[in-house]
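Continuing the batch. This is chain 6 of the set; chains 1 through 5 are on the previous pages. Same settings as before, nothing changed between runs. Recording input and output for traceability.
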Amino acid sequence: MKKFIALFLSALLCMSLFAACTDTNTDPTDAATDAAGVSQTDAVDEKFVVGICQLVTHDALDAATKGFKDAIIAALGEENVEFLEQNAAGEPNTCVTIVNDFVSKEVDLMMANGTAALQAAANATLDIPILGTSITEYGVALGISDFTGVVGGNISGTSDLAPLDEQAQMIIDLVPDAKTVGLLYCSAEPNSEYQVKVVREYLEGKNLTVKDFAFSASSDVAQVAEAAAAACDALYIPTDNTAASCTETINNVVLPTGTPIIAGEAGICGGCGIATLSISYYELGKTTGEMAVKILKGEADISTMEIAYDNNPVKQYNQTNCSELDIAIPEGYEPLA
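Output for chain 6:
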């Protein structure tokens, strides 16, 4: 009998121990803590990898890239994002190499800064989200007819398009004696061709003679600029990446001839122009970065995101060149920083 009682008590003890080990009300993570005493359930934020392909180095694109990175870091924290930043030095084929490398590394998102960078990214992947910036017209850049403001698929971004008719009117306002206006731009940049087409139509509607002066690469800029200055009373340069990287060359050729230049953006104006109606590329980059944060956090669907614009362009003037050419600047213009 005593033996039976002992066996019975032993069985009860084993059952109690088994129940304690299999208590369904116990969270197995409750006791799992690291050396600092932080529960493993307090998961660290995911670290994102963002590829940045910038077409070329110049003030406008540099500012857009900085604004993009600053916005993401401000929202996610520097420790939670890794930027793979590459510059194509103005070579579209290098953009292709860069974005293909991003695809092979399976980055979480790409930022394409400049039209050739966007085109390369669009051809490289249909899956990784792509945000463009410093793109004038997405329909032109991507060959979309009847573009309505949403690219669709895995692409969206921001546009640097300022009111082209207002830029064209600046030529008339600031150089009232001009009869012939030259359009100086890179023929390899489709967005530049789009801008000069609009400006040409506006100026011809005002009974001015308009001539095209297109260069195909930076090596041609000096020669083409010299011909343009000799044939025209004033020049217009759109938001053209090749021109933006050659402003010193253009200024050295054009300024001594006394030919004023109206520019499509502040960087070009500061380098060789007299005035511009320009957006802030840093703010444009920030807007792009804010779009990226929403995509990375799963708060927005890139396929439905509209292209964003800066609706507050500012009239600015280059004090040095205006003084050199004796150009009187009317009210409403701000000096370039």
